[in-house]
Amino acid sequence: MALEWVVLGYAAGAEAVMLLLMTVPGLDPLRKGLITVIRNLLKPFLSVVPFCFFLLMDIYWKYETRPSCESDSCSPSEHLRHQKSIMKSQRNALLIASALIFYWLLYSVTGLVVKIEQLTKRIEKLKAQD
């Protein structure tokens, strides 16, 4: 596996772990510090989006330039290599999709958690006034 796919896998994994920690109930003390860390990491993690599009174009280019093995003239090893190439492309496309979805979910959930905290503080302030 090439280095860029390993990097994308680690980025998607980090996004998934942060998303899991944000949504698991009972981690309120940890969540406050995690929110500030995630909000500071969202801008650098935005680089995942153009990186994913670059890798998607790489998959497309490899798909367009790969030798086809559709006739009976292919040897079994060529046919197997062709099938492995298709499976790798599909795996990498799923990795790209998961990284993009995890980033979007992390961005959305962080925004919602911040809004919920602001509303909770507002409610407490209104209750204190009454």
TrEMBL record:
GO cellular component terms, A-Z: endoplasmic reticulum membrane
Cited InterPro entries: BAP29/BAP31
GO biological process, one term: intracellular protein transport
Subcellular location: Endoplasmic reticulum membrane
Keywords noted in UniProt: Endoplasmic reticulum, ER-Golgi transport, Membrane, Protein transport, Transmembrane, Transmembrane helix, Transport
Keyword Thylakoid: no
Transmembrane intervals: 6-24, 45-63, 93-114
Domain of life: Eukaryota
Topology term for the membrane: Multi-pass membrane protein
Family the entry assigns: Belongs to the BCAP29/BCAP31 family.
Function, as annotated: May play a role in anterograde transport of membrane proteins from the endoplasmic reticulum to the Golgi.
Protein's UniProt name: Endoplasmic reticulum transmembrane protein
Organism, as annotated: Sesamum calycinum
